[in-house]
Design goal:
The structure holds 2 protein chains of 2 kinds. Chain A is α+β, with helices and mostly antiparallel strands. Chain A has 6 helices and 9 strands. Helices cover 29% and strands 24% of the residues of chain A. In chain A, strands 1-9 form a two-stranded antiparallel sheet. Chain A has a two-stranded antiparallel ribbon with strand order 3-4. In chain A, strands 5-6 form a two-stranded antiparallel sheet. By secondary structure, chain B is an alpha+beta fold. Chain B has 3 domains: 197 residues, 4-Layer Sandwich (Aldehyde Ferredoxin Oxidoreductase,  A, domain 1), CATH 3.60.9; 173 residues, Aldehyde Ferredoxin Oxidoreductase Protein, subunit A, domain 2 (Orthogonal Bundle), CATH 1.10.569; 139 residues, no CATH class. Helices cover 46% and strands 13% of the residues of chain B. Chain B contains 28 helices and 18 strands. Chain B has a 6-stranded mixed β-sheet. In chain B, strands 8-7-12-9-10-11 form a 6-stranded mixed β-sheet, sandwiched between helices. In chain B, strands 14-15-16 form a 3-stranded antiparallel β-sheet. In chain B, strand 15 and strand 16 form a beta hairpin. Chain B is globular and about 65 Å long. Chain B starts with 5 loop residues before the first strand and ends with a helix. Classes of the chains: A alpha+beta, B alpha+beta. Chains A and B meet through helix 1, strand 2, strand 3 and strand 4 of A and helix 4, strand 13, helix 7, strand 14 and strand 16 of B.
Chain lengths: 161, 675
């Protein structure tokens, strides 16, 4: 099973992920409609950038609170909204711990990341220039994270060698 | 066209808001700087000065702005920085341009002057004049924070001025986010004269796409080119502070090569103080740099800012002064030039400590330099000397004795060279400048056979030797020449020591490539203009992107015609402005060029005047300009449906015969040079 893995150290905050997401899923360039958002915060001349997207929780609150049973898990472990069943109550929006679900009046339904159900892979990860977003097999995530974190230790070892 | 569809016109004097359709202008001028030039020249008479109520300030986007292919705006107005206040368009990136499109506006035209300080709050259709009394006097970062807080929206994009703009310092800029600026021309001072503190824009409507499938396909090609293709090196080496290395190491390349001394100041600066990248929306390069130096401050820097670091490698002083210049809302190259010139004047005894209000400028240190920046921005004491720019200050101070120490560019244009490579390049860059130096645009372009900034960095990234890398880059440049001029042309046309009449054609192509970026909203850096960096994105690609986004076929021919028409319109209008301002003659260094290049300058870089003149004449022929004056001919203007300009120019040319002295036309440099 694959999932999107995010590496903050590689993110430059370019927002290509927002643009390609809205183009691929909505047919337009509109960050407001993107399923992934890069939150930009300015503090005293420093810009902080934090991407926010659906983490495809193992025990999703959005699914648990949905009174219409509109959210289900697909074969790729993506949590999918069935727009025909969705009543637009917004409980999922409230329940999501990362703020990755929104109810849109133009669709009368909740909108969230489906890992690009219409494509062979999530487009945000596919087109992430710096490799901050990667779509990888679950079993590789652990070792990938460990390797990422080991860089500092490696530097120390090199200095001592 | 993939335009938002609306031009928003705001009159600060009458407090009115009007909306007109973009379509009437976009057909002929595509968008961006083209539409802005037409809007401006239709409405603003040539006798206007930059701070007049009738001057306009236009924020313009293009059809690609808001998409993955471009996020640039142009800020356009009469520029107070230069002697006859020419019309200038200067680029500004960041998040604001796409936000304008998402709010539904291709262009925001600001007319008139407000009685009291205001800022404009634009949230889709909701446009308001908001009192900015409490913001007046705040620096650019505090202003943005206050507006975000007032709007209760951290995502509102704010472009604002600092105290320098409020005080009409001619080197004041407009700043957006941390380091996206409309820096050229003195646009901040124009905004200050209008008592407009800021423009705050938020848009949620997005940009409609006619053919998403085609756009995705083109984006895939773009992505592949810059991640796996020839552009890979450009992308890899520019991101994450790479831009600074290109500038600092690149400028030193020759010096380093000659001396054999390689230093790593910029690498140290980046590793110690860089806290992140900054850039335009949807651009993966994020080429600007966010620094935080403890005890000094945080902010951003771009390529031209780093140019100064290449000359004065004291990191602390460079950053403290550059950051302080930005916070006050001024252009760092101009103010750095003022400070260093002031230091030279003091050290040579031409001005005294008393003149400097007790500030010890002989030391290259944080305190005196930042204190001087504050004085310049507030027009306090000696700061008042610089309110109208360095060139003018130098003519006034110490009986004008320091004027001759300024370089040709500052003397003639009252502004420092926009980038450090301006003076180093001849060939087609100087051809453009020779023809057009009376206007605001700087056409100079960093192509030159032996001045590439990317040789060392590309060598490091590829593991190739310097010599191999140099050959590779020269081949890329030669490919460009062959593509544009045919197989019998070669890369030697870029060389400074080669004179060839075909260089006039290179000038035209380079200017047109630059202009289509200004029209479309595509950034000129990752474009064919930078072919020597391995970049792509020229006439064909831009036409393709526009077609896919808009669903209407845009041809290369249409694009080039719009670029040439814009170029001609701006040149005609600026010629008209020059011919109108008779009262400026004694101080204006902006003459129709006969021999536009200063003798001193010629000696410095060994320019062959006669041959350069030949190239200039060929350039004029290509553009349809009179080679004697550099002014578009009536025939050219009529052919381009610019009859209004043809009529006005004919009248002014007739009138000016009475006061334009033939010997002045001959020298090109009038009274200021004689001093």
């Amino acid at each position: 099973m694959k999932r999107i893995v995010f590496d903050q150290t590689k993110c430059v905050g370019c927002r290509v992920c927002e643009a390609i997401c809205s183009l691929s899923n909505e047919g337009e360039f509109n960050p407001e409609k993107a399923r992934i958002r890069v939150i930009r915060t300015f503090e005293e001349g420093i810009l902080y950038k934090t991407p926010v997207m659906c983490m495809q929780c193992e025990n999703p609150y959005c699914q648990a609170v949905c009174p219409a049973g509109a959210i289900s898990r697909d074969g790729r472990n993506a949590k999918i909204v069935d727009e025909k069943k969705c009543i637009g109550c917004k409980l999922c929006e409230v329940a999501c711990p990362v703020g990755a679900v929104t109810v849109r009046s133009d669709r009368h339904a909740a909108v969230k990341c489906s890992l690009c159900a219409d494509y062979d892979e999530p487009q945000c990860a596919k087109f992430c220039f710096g490799g901050a977003l990667q779509y990888m097999e679950e079993e590789r995530v652990g070792i990938a994270r460990a390797r990422e974190k080991s860089v500092k230790f490696l530097e120390l070892q090199r200095k001592e060698a | 066209m993939s335009n938002a569809g609306t031009i928003l016109i705001i009159d600060l004097s009458a407090r009115t808001i009007e909306r007109i359709a973009t379509s009437g202008y976009a057909k002929e001028f595509i968008g961006g700087a083209g539409v802005a030039a037409r809007l401006f020249t239709e409405c603003v008479p040539s006798d206007t000065r930059a701070f007049d109520e009738k001057n306009m300030l236009i924020f313009s986007t293009g059809p690609l702005t808001g998409s993955l292919f471009g996020n640039k705006a142009n800020v356009c107005s009469r520029a107070p920085e230069q002697p006859n206040h020419p019309y200038v368009h200067c680029g500004m990136g960041g998040q604001l341009p796409s936000e304008m499109k998402f709010a539904g506006y291709d262009h925001i035209v600001i007319k008139g002057q407000s009685e009291k300080p205001v800022y404009l709050s634009i949230y889709n259709e909701d446009v308001r004049f908001v009192d900015a009394g409490a913001l007046w006097g705040l620096d650019v970062y505090k202003t943005q924070a206050a507006i975000r807080s007032e709007c209760q929206d951290p995502d509102v994009r704010v472009a604002c001025i600092g105290p320098a703009g409020e005080n009409r310092i001619v080197n004041a800029l407009i700043l957006h986010d941390i380091e996206h600026t409309a820096a050229r021309g003195g646009m901040g001072a124009v905004m200050g004269a209008k008592k407009l503190k800021a423009l705050a824009v938020r848009g949620t409507k997005g940009l409609q796409v006619a053919d998403p499938k085609a756009v995705r396909k083109l984006w895939q090609e773009y992505f592949d080119y810059y991640t796996k293709g020839k552009g890979r090196l450009y992308y890899q080496t520019w991101q994450r502070g790479g831009l600074a290395r290109h500038v600092v190491d690149g400028y030193r390349y020759r010096r380093r090569k000659e001396s054999g001394v390689y230093t790593d100041e910029i690498k140290e600066m980046l590793s110690k103080y860089m806290v992140g990248s900054l850039g335009c929306s949807f651009c993966p390069l994020q080429c600007h740099i966010n620094y935080n130096m403890p005890g000094i401050g945080s902010g951003g820097a771009t390529c031209s800012n780093h140019g100064m670091l290449s000359g004065f490698p004291d990191q602390q002083v460079w950053w403290a002064v550059t950051n302080s210049i930005h916070k006050y809302g001024m252009e760092s190259f101009a103010v750095w030039s003022m400070l260093l010139w002031l230091q030279g004047m003091y050290q040579s005894g031409l001005i005294t400590l008393q003149d400097l209000d007790g500030i010890e400028m002989d030391k290259y240190a944080v305190e005196p330099f930042t204190a001087a920046v504050g004085k310049i921005c507030r027009r306090e004491g000696f700061g008042e000397w610089f309110a109208e720019g360095l060139g003018k200050a130098a003519q006034k101070i110490a009986g004008g004795k320091g004027f001759k120490t300024l370089d040709w560019v500052i003397q003639s244009r009252n502004r420092p060279s926009f980038s450090m490579h301006d003076l180093a390049y001849r060939g087609f860059a100087e051809t453009g400048k020779a023809i057009r130096y009376r206007a605001g645009d700087i056409i100079a372009h960093p192509y030159s056979f032996d001045n590439y900034c990317n040789i060392e960095i590309y060598a490091e990234a590829t593991g190739q030797s310097i010599e191999e890398t140099e050959r590779m880059i020269n081949d890329w440049s030669a490919d460009g020449v062959k593509k544009w001029l045919g197989d019998d042309a070669d890369g030697s046309l870029w060389r400074q020591d080669v004179y060839d009449v075909r260089q006039s054609q290179l000038t035209v192509i380079s200017e047109d490539l630059n202009m289509i970026c200004d029209l479309s909203g595509h950034c000129e850096m990752p474009s064919e203009r930078e072919i020597h960096y391995g970049c792509f994105g020229g006439f064909e690609e831009t036409a393709g992107w526009i077609s896919a986004l808009s669903g209407k076929k845009c041809t290369v021919e249409e694009l080039r015609q719009a670029a040439q028409k814009t170029r001609t319109l701006v040149d005609a209008y600026n010629s008209l402005c020059f011919l109108t301002h008779k009262e400026l003659r004694p101080e204006a260094a902006d003459m129709p060029p006969k021999d536009a290049i200063h003798d001193k300058f010629l000696k410095k870089i060994k320019v062959d005047k006669a041959k350069l003149r030949e190239i200039g004449d060929a350039y004029c022929k290509s553009r349809g300009y009179d080679p004697e004056t550099g002014i578009p001919t009536a025939e050219t203007l009529t052919k381009m449906d610019l009859d209004d300009m043809a009529v006005q120019l004919a009248q002014k040319l007739q009138e000016s015969k009475d006061w334009l002295k033939p010997e002045e036309q001959e020298t090109g440099f009038p009274d200021v040079r004689a001093k």
